[in-house]
Amino acid sequence: MCGFAGFLDFTHRGNNNDILYAMIATIRHRGPDDSGIFFQHNEHCSIGLGHARLSIIDLSSKGHQPMSYKHLSIVYNGEIYNYREIKKELKEIGHTFISTSDTEVILHAYEQWGRECVSHFIGMLHSRYLTPKVKS
User: Fold this and answer.
1) Which residues of 69-78 are buried (b: 16+ CB within 10 A; e: fewer)?
2) Which of 27, 66, 93, 124 would give a disulfide with 38, using CB separation of 3.0 to 4.6 Å?
């Protein structure tokens, strides 16, 4: 199972790359095949995304994360079971792909449909994130 970490820093504390690399090092056992970071700084904040990859669907380096497409970047863990069908639909609309990764399909789907892209996905979810809190 892959692992990812990230932060959003509004304090502009300097070199956050070191912090991000340290975060990924602590979860390296979750993704021994590859790792990477994405770091962006603007006048408002710094954002860092890191990923420790366990290669399952696209075993090539083209499935490397964090993955970016145009102005979008993503770290992702899970599986979109119907990504081939979505990819075919997106290709018919004019999208081109460089990998066989479901992660790249998510990026293109988000560009095409925005937040509504999730209604196209059939995938793996962790139920602990979906369980409503019970009031006592």
Assistant:
1) beeeebbbbe
2) 66
